[in-house]
Structure formats: C-alpha cells, structure tokens
Design brief:
The structure is a homodimer of 220-residue chains. Chain A is mostly helical and 220 residues long. The first copy, chain A, has a domain of 150 residues: Tetracycline Repressor, domain 2 (Orthogonal Bundle), CATH 1.10.357. Chain A has 10 helices and no strands. In chain A, helix 1 packs across helix 2, helix 5 crosses helix 9 and helix 8 runs antiparallel to helix 9. The N and C termini of chain A lie far apart (59 Å). The N terminus of chain A is likely disordered. At the A-B interface, helix 7, helix 8 and helix 9 of A face helix 7, helix 8 and helix 9 of B.
C-alpha cells in the first residue's frame, strides 16, 4: 500500500503495458534472428518474465506472438507517413521518408524479415498484415499531399512508389546503409515527382496534383 | 522396334522430357491453387503417371517439386527481358514488357504465388530463387540497353524499376487485368525513362545512358 511495497526488481504492469513489454522483447529478437530461431523462452528471458506469463498473453504461442510483433512493426512503419503536415508537400514527404529510413535503420533485420516474407512463419495472414499496412501507408501519403479524392491511376502510382521505397530500403540495408539516408531520401522524393509526372500524362487528377506541387515548390 | 510398338495411350519419354512434363503439370496446378492445396497425387493424375514415378523424379516430394516449378517459372519470367535486341531501346524494352505481361496473363495465379511468397511453402530457399531471377532480369535489362558497365546507382535504378514492374503486374491482376496490358506497358517504359532521368542527376554513367536513349529516340 506504500510506495515501498513495490521493489525495483519486481514491477506490476497493467495488461496493456505488459503486452507491450512482451511485444518489444519479441520485436527485438525477431529483428535480429529469423523467427524459426526465436523461442518463447527467449522472449520470456528477454522480458524478464516466466514462460507461462508469455503464454497467458499469447495463448497461440510463437505464431501469435510473431504475428502481433509483425503487426506492431508494420503499424509503426505505416505511421511514418502519417506525420505533421507543415511546409511544402515535397518537404513533408521528405520528413516522412526520414522517419521511415530511421525506422529501417533501427530495426534492420526485422525490417528485412517483415518485407522479404522469406520465413517459415510467413502465412497468408502475415502477408495480409503487410498488405494492409501498405494500403494504409498509401492513404497516408495521399492525405499528406492533401489529395481529397484519388482516382485509380493516382492511387496505383502512390502504391508503386511505396514498393520502390521498400525495395530501396532493402537494397540500402544490403549495401551496408550506403549511400547516406539523406541521399536515398532525396532520390526517392524526386522519383515520386517523376512518377507522378508520367501518370499525369494520362490522368487529369494526377495532372492537377503535379501542378499544385510545382506551384508550391515555386512559392516555397 | 516399329512405330506401332508404342500405343498412343502410353508414351515413353526421355528423362528430361518426363521431368519437363511433370514440371508443366505441377506449374499448371500451382498456378491455380496455393501450394498447400496441391498434392503429389494431383500432380501425378494431371501428368497421367503414377505417384511413385513423380517420387522417382522428385525424391524430396512436394517441397522439391514446388521449388523446381518455382525456378522454372522464375527462369521463364527472367528470360522475358532477354529477347532479340532490334530497334530503339525503348521499343526493345516495350517488347520485353509485352512478353512479361503475356506471361503474367497466362500464369496469373502462379505469378501471384511466386511473387507474394505468401505461402506456407515459402522458405529462404524459395526466396533466393526469386531473388536470383530478379538479379538476372536486371542484367538482361542492362544488356538490352547495351550498357557495358553499370555503376551501383544505375544498377539499383534498374532493379527498383523491376520491382515496380512486378508490383504493377500484381495490381494489374488484382484489378481484373485493367487497364489493357499495352497501357501498362507504355506507362512502365515511361516510368523507367523518368527514373533514369532522376538518377542521371547524380550519376554520370546514367546521364550518358539517358542521352543515348534520347538520341536514339530522336533518330527513330
């Protein structure tokens, strides 16, 4: 009942806090090792809890924990494009990419595992998680660009650019994080504007967006 | 010893021909169903042979057959970019894309399975197959463009464009093969030229290539 009742070596956490703690431990492990090499014991040890406690939160065992960790990482990744919208759109997109590349840098092995899907734990469900995040990221980018209504061509262009962002990040990791992230970011922003310009030749909505972007760049 | 000795209902095939026949049967099935729903019995039935015969050619069972089928499809896909090189480069690239999209059209479900990797049969080995084919395709594109020596930036640009080709093909299938393949092809060629132009701003070799492409387009 007094603050002293809780010793520093034992922390009582609420349900969500405990769940988050277990997910963080799992993510840290999945980020460094392929899922097949991570055991529930590893997760319990890293979180400083017992194996039964992990099971209480994730009765589905490792597969459930893996999917939850994947979803948590994927959500965080998708949120990179959902940031504050100040300044001209190209600068906003650049800041979103800074957040994205910082995430990739911090979670390199986990990011590869997430996107390559090349693990024995990959199922149509884990693919659906990644797919859902990609769609959400595309919507965030359209919001960031203040596009109220995107036609299919513009939406496809944004989705394809996001696959370029993902693939460029994987190649960036493969190449030992070279060139510097800032160069990758600028290249990706320019690639996006170039891709929009191509789509604008056959789509009026995209043409309106590229004109708006060009005008804002002139005013900036 | 006479032609009559072989009846139409029983054909003796050489080792490679039989292997090819089994792969064709497997591909046809994997193209329509997720690998977990395809059994060796299905493959045997479709090829009109016994199950032990399938095992004789693929002692590793379904996983081995799946990987062999994947490799065969992936090889065929990679070869789309390894075609005859006549006419201006953009036209050559357009013809390569015609072959690619025709393959995607013919093998739609198999193509999705191959690239989404979202199957329980996906392993780091199947991913390596897909990865190897992507690298080979990038080399084919550089050859097709008569690039003798590509630096890392140009090579990365080609690889990233190929991921756009793959992702655009998946979206094209998702959208019920709309818009027509010819429109997707033209859009992809223009995207490639636009992507090169961005890279050319920071890479002399890519700049030389874009100048060459522009000159050939003027002469064509």
């Amino acid at each position: 009942m007094t603050p002293q009742a809780a010793t520093p070596s034992y922390r009582r956490l609420g349900v969500e806090a405990r769940r988050g703690q277990l997910l963080d431990a799992a993510l840290a492990l999945f980020a460094r090792h392929p899922p097949e090499d991570v055991s529930l014991d590893d997760v319990a040890r890293r979180a400083g809890v017992s194996r039964p406690l992990v099971y209480r939160y994730f009765p589905g065992g490792k597969q459930q924990l893996y999917e939850a960790a994947l979803r948590s990482a994927a959500d965080e990744l998708g949120l990179c494009f959902d940031g504050p919208g100040q300044g001209p759109p190209a600068a906003r997109l650049g800041r979103a990419l800074d957040r994205y590349l910082a995430f990739v840098d911090r979670n390199d092995a986990g990011f590869s595992a997430l996107l390559r899907g090349g693990s024995v734990a990959a199922t149509s469900r884990t693919c659906a998680i990644v797919d859902g995040v990609r769609r959400a990221a595309a919507e965030h980018v359209l919001t960031l660009l203040e596009v109220a209504e995107a036609g299919p061509r513009l939406r496809t262009t944004v989705r394809l650019w996001l696959t370029t962002v993902e693939a460029a990040s994987l190649i960036w990791l493969d190449e030992g994080k070279r060139p510097p992230a800032a160069e990758v970011r600028d290249w990706l922003v320019e690639q996006f504007l170039a891709a929009l310009t191509v789509t604008a030749r056959r789509d009026a909505r995209t043409a309106a967006l590229t004109e708006m972007l060009a005008a804002e760049a002139r005013d900036a």
